Amino acid sequence: MSETEHEAASGAAASGAGPAGDPVAARRRLGVGMVGYAFMGAAHSQGWRTVGRVFDLPVETRLAAVCGRDGAAVRAAADRLGWAAAETDWRALIARDDVDLVDVCTPGDSHAEIAIAALEAGKHVLCEKPLANTVEEAEAMVAAAERARTRGQLAMVGFNYRRVPALALAREMVAAGRLGTLRHVRLTYLQDWLVDPGFPLTWRLRRDRAGSGALGDLGAHIVDLAQYLTGELVAGVSALTETFVRERPLLEGASSGLAAGGSGADGTGTGGSGAGEAGAGGARAGGAGAGRGAVGQVTVDDAAVFTARFPSGALATFEATRFAAGRKNALRLELNGSDGSLAFDLERLNELSFHDHTEPAASAGFRRILVTESTHPYLAAWWPPGHGLGYEHTFVHQARDLLHAIATGAAPEPSFADGLAVQRVLAAVEESAQKNSVYTPVAAAPVAT
Questions:
Q1: Angle, to 10 degrees, between the axis of helix 39-54 and the axis of helix 393-408?
Q2: Whose CA is closest to 308, among 250, 235, 215?
Q3: What is residue 127's DSSP assignment?
Q4: Close Cβ partners of 222 (under 8 Å, ≥ 6 residues apart)
Q5: What is the Cα–Cα distance from 75 to 43, expressed in whole angstroms?
């Protein structure tokens, strides 16, 4: 969106309150309520706190309330993260008059219940990835989002890596035909926080809470990026999954809850979704020796590897693991087309590598694009060229995009339907792995409304 469009959106969203000529006073005020306050909750809080200080927004936001089951812990989180109030029941948070948007940062088993209830209560919703634990839950969420859209409420899923400026630029280049006909897509997401078999059995290692393991935690990101960058949906997959360590120590003080399928290692059930992306969201602090007495079963995958086909005929390979020793948050991708190639490494997130295959061979080759120019996506609001951004900025961009969608009534991206499309790929991967890598088409059934 151009600066002119930003100004037009601001005017369209103005409520008319406040003194004439005071654009800040004329803005619509929108209260945000967040459920969950661990790793993803902290990241989302950073985005909400910062977005209005960086971007010229059509909507003024207020961090109204944060929710978690442990009263003392959530009050401390509210003070630390900048929220005005704390709640211990997500239903009470949704019912608050000062909450217009509900940000869901809980484990996957509660996404559907909270998001649907918030939409039915007339709230906008941002929900962390993956959208749900099952295709059926995701379909119900999409149906609720479609009903809410007719009433003016919007729903978006939080695939934050779309908001890396270099990847947004890559999408623009692919859409503009700079790669020609796409042939290959390669994506890997490698971490190592589970290599130690003494790492405790957190909620991320239980299927009833997380839905899946590395597949949903990391694989969801790279599936979404593949579909976002190519503009196509995966047509089918052939997959392998593996659980390398099948039993792990129970966390101290959580033995009964984990063994019986209780509320979770942190006692709240509202730790941040996406915690694996930074060392299990604090559970790592317990160390390898945490709770070495009793053990529990790991019921998710530790790694997933699969090939895929796009409708255009392009081939893709995906790898997601939390057992790649030495890799902390290594997301890498490469796209090869008839006219060129693009490559990206999250550890160098301000850079994009591009090869123009139409140039003479004598001088052609990959070149580095430093994605810090004001003409690059999102960067007009930030620093002078050469001054790079970081991981946390993706959450600021996510908040900015959702607020502009709310102000203008535009469909937010990625939508719940985009999240469902990823969920269907994850389900096909699990089905293929269960059938010894048999090629499995990705379901594309219409959503029941």
A1: 60
A2: 235
A3: E
A4: 187, 188, 189, 318, 320, 331, 333
A5: 17
